[in-house]
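hi! just following up on the protien thing from before. the input was this:
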Amino acid sequence: MTRDISDEDRGALQAAKALLENPGFTARVTNFIGKPIEDGIARLPANWSGAIDKATRLALTKAADTALFTLTDRPGLSASSRWHKLAVSVTGGVGGAFGWAGLALELPVSTTLMLRSIADIARSEGESVAAAPTRLACLSVLALGGSSRSDDGTDSGYYAVRAALAQAVSDAAQYLAQSAGANASAPVLARLISAVAKRFGVQVGEKAAAEALPLVGAVGGATINLLFIDHFQDMARGHFTVRRLERRYGEEAVQALYATLPAAR
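and the predicted 3d structure came back as:
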């Protein structure tokens, strides 16, 4: 029952919802470049949508193998968010120097670093990164806050995204539990990566559009990547706070309380 949730944990859930329902990556980038993302989209090559879809899926596959399936479990460590931000901003600076052409080289590295940071945050919320559900939850974070322009509010809310991914996550968890040598190219994992890529690709497209603007360059690319990882670190903090509370009170009670809370602090 929601009345059993302590005031402290109600506050934690409110803070998590404020992060999860107000992603703000596009707004952050727009504030930085001083003009709408659409101005950058107009400068992308004619085939940009297909190219970003391909780059996103490849980046997620490589990152999942490197960042998740090779992780060792070291519980009790606090998240190293600043180090990951620094590393991602460096890769963004290198990618920004080459503009659109640098995306395919920079994105797998940035995505791997972001997944490592997301796993750090998961550990700080009491998750075991050796457990398949935690690893898949880390991957799922990249789908949060990435609704397409055609989505309505019911499709893009936090619990709606979790519901949309639920079957793919369940199938992948079952596969990982039965397979000692799992890799992200396995069909069942590829299906989950495809579902995540559909939403993550929206954010990647907006990032590429911002970096395509002439005024951006290497310095701007570093800053945009910093905004990019900051966005997903916020999503991770919200997501793994919710999961921690669900372990304590049950999914039904936490979801019911979440629905009654305002989206802003």
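Residues 147-154 have pLDDT under 50 and may be disordered.
The first helix runs from residue 7 to 20.
cheers
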